[in-house]
Amino acid sequence: MGPLHPATAEQLAGTVSAALGAKARRVSVALGELTVVVAAPDYVAAALILRDTPGCQFEQLIDLCGIDYSEYADGRYDGRRFCVASHLLSVSLNQRVRLKVFCDDDDFPVVASLTEVWNSANWFEREAFDLFGIIFEGHNDLRRILTDYGFIGHPFRKDFPTTGHVEMRYDPEQKRVIYQPVTIEPRETTPRVIREDNYGGLQ
């Protein structure tokens, strides 16, 4: 399903705004997509309203991801650093909504888990925890899902080094996998441009 028709998007925005009331901090339509922002304390209640209210009926959570806004807008952004964006689908009404919530604490980002509302949130929340370090309170199995067991840090955070902190290799003398500091040297990735005096027949 692509973007909503502008009239349909505005109508859905009205329906969602009425259902959420004061819980909706912001409701916006851009490029035919509806986005709703709620406060962290209202997150689960808003999700239940979006799932159960006639006219909304978002029965499925189809995606959930973390977002790090620390380098957003080239440093001109001054809001909260971490956000969770959930994409909801109403199969019965053929409509979608993006539900966003910002973590109140940039140093220890925490939001409630949606696993009791939609069980499909389970692995999505584990992924956001693993890659962004966002804690989902109430999740019954919050552990890493993509990185190694001993991995330190959260690789999708903007301040995580692109080469990582450590690398692993098999050591034939110790007969096991070992971790060591990264040995990749920083290098210039800009291509070198060589121009001859008569390049392209130009003088």
Key phrases:
two-stranded parallel sheet, extended
**Structure summary, number of beta strands:** 9
Nearest-angstrom radius of gyration?
23 Å
Model regions low in confidence, pLDDT < 50 over at least 5 residues: none
User: Largest sheet, if any?
Assistant: 5 strands, mixed
Report the β-strand fraction as a percent range.
25-35%
The percentage helix is 10-25%
> In angstroms, what separates the terminal alpha carbons?
55 Å
Mean pLDDT: 88
Arrangement of strands in the largest sheet: 1-2-5-4-3
Order of helices and strands: HEEHEEEEHEEE
Give the overall form: extended
> Count of DSSP helices?
3
Sheet/helix structural class: alpha/beta
In short:
This protein has 203 residues and is of the alpha/beta class. Helices cover 18% and strands 28% of the residues.
Can you walk through the features of this model?
The chain is an alpha/beta fold. It has helices spanning 6-20, 43-52, 121-132; strands at 24-30, 33-38, 60-68, 82-90, 95-102, 110-112, 135-137, 166-171, 176-181. Helix 3 links the parallel strand 6 (110-112) and strand 7 (135-137). 24% of the residues are buried.
Topology:
Layout: H1 6-20, E1 24-30, E2 33-38, H2 43-52, E3 60-68, E4 82-90, E5 95-102, E6 110-112, H3 121-132, E7 135-137, E8 166-171, E9 176-181
Parallel strand pairs: 2-5, 6-7
Antiparallel strand pairs: 1-2, 3-4, 4-5, 8-9
